[in-house]
Amino acid sequence: MRIAPARAGDAEALTDLHLDVWEEAYAHLMPASVFTDRRARRTERVASWSSIIAAGSSDNLLAWSADDRLLGFSSTGTGRDPDDDLPPLELMALYVRASSYGTGVGHALLEAATGGSPAYLWVLDGNVRAIGFYERHGFAFDGATKPEDVGLERRMVRA
């Protein structure tokens, strides 16, 4: 496995991965219409990822298999929450293909993205697998929640 920063030419593969992993992670938590709508806006999503990568406003790492198959990605950046008590680093996204669960890809991405530094993230309530993963890596709920279109998100912090 190889972890590398996302490049402009990766936007299409990253979009397809992002669409796939959302369905794999959230199929039991969201209606199918959410995934259908996301896929219908694929072209828009490719353009969005291209812009995000070009702007450099977040650090986006991609995990590639030995045969150059995209296995997962992470996004980190300066925290977007206005809370002074939070670590300055936010893990904005960490997704891995279901076929790579338990193989160390998620752990490798998390370590490459955060280096074990204090950080915080938002996780969808009910996403038991992700919550367990983050707890094993030192994150804990701090009590903050926010409603999103797709469900309630809960904040986790690693000091």
From TrEMBL:
Pfam families in UniProt: Acetyltransf_1
Superkingdom assignment: Bacteria
InterPro entries in the record: Acyl_CoA_acyltransferase, GNAT_dom
Domain N-acetyltransferase: 1-159
Listed SUPFAM superfamilies: Acyl-CoA N-acyltransferases (Nat)
Name of the featured protein: GNAT family N-acetyltransferase
Protein species of origin: Nocardioides pini
Taxonomy of the source species: Bacteria, Bacillati, Actinomycetota, Actinomycetes, Propionibacteriales
